[in-house]
What we know:
Elements: E1 4-7, H1 13-22, E2 26-30, H2 40-46, E3 55-59, H3 65-75, E4 79-83, E5 97-103, E6 114-118, H4 130-136, E7 141-144, H5 153-160, E8 164-167, E9 172-174, E10 177-178, H6 180-195
Amino acid sequence: xxxxxxxxxxxxxxxxxxxxxxxxxxxxxxxxxxxxxxxxxxxxxxxxxxxxxxxxxxxxxxxxxxxxxxxxxxxxxxxxxxxxxxxxxxxxxxxxxxxxxxxxxxxxxxxxxxxxxxxxxxxxxxxxxxxxxxxxxxxxxxxxxxxxxxxxxxxxxxxxxxxxxxxxxxxxxxxxxxxxxxxxxxxxxxxxxxxxx
Length: 197
């Protein structure tokens, strides 16, 4: 079993490179109000070297269609990640993959495709109930998010058996400032856990 590892909230080219070199399958750039927010053109410039097998993810929250189209034009992501109810109101071309976000306590995932499962608020380091997540993970390809760190990602993978894992705030020295060592430790811990499944 190969677990997809996503590092989210990247704002510096060296941290994108750290994630790619350590084996991340996806790198996320936040275009919603957050300490991790980045301009679409800047996101493109710090990720222009990312190989085709690593997905560049635009992370948004209730975007207006015009805001999404600006991200599409200036960043040209491989994936759009936003709350499930947002997707119907956006003009998303066929070449952009959709990762709907389902939140703990909200509507249940109803897809056979890839989706993200996390707490009520993104980027706050809040873990979800892994026992509930484990039941949902049998539906579609769940990327488990929320409060995952180098210290607990192995336990999360063993408990939930997700398709992927996603971390942001736990890989930072302060809000919005990633740390190379933590990025590598997170990816290494996730990789080690999947070899023991």
